[in-house]
Amino acid sequence: QVHLVESGGGSVQAGGSLRLSCAASGRTLNAMGWFRQAPGKEREFVAAITRYGGGTYYADSVKGRFTISRDNAKNTAYLQMNSLKPEDTAVYYCALDPRGAQLMSVSPSIDSWGQGTQVTVSS
Quick one: average pLDDT of 83-112? Predict the structure, then answer.
């Protein structure tokens, strides 16, 4: 099983930016994606990217502000988050879905989860 390790979380003011990274322990050509879970809420889909990076999917709440990318040579996915809002505050999790990015965005069947990284946005 591939292990995922997220990094890059932290605390920023509204309007700021953060870049999250997700390093996989081995080579993976599964779709990679990001989910988040705020206190008292269910985990929700944020973004997904196809195995070679040719396609991306976003939750409506982050479209135009977040960008997902991946570097298969480094077995790493990224989430660039701009124009952050207090409602983006959550623990962000990296995930793999062998069925593809589109299915991950609508009906995920996650093969591996990372441990999560906290993102806190203050107003």
Answer: 94
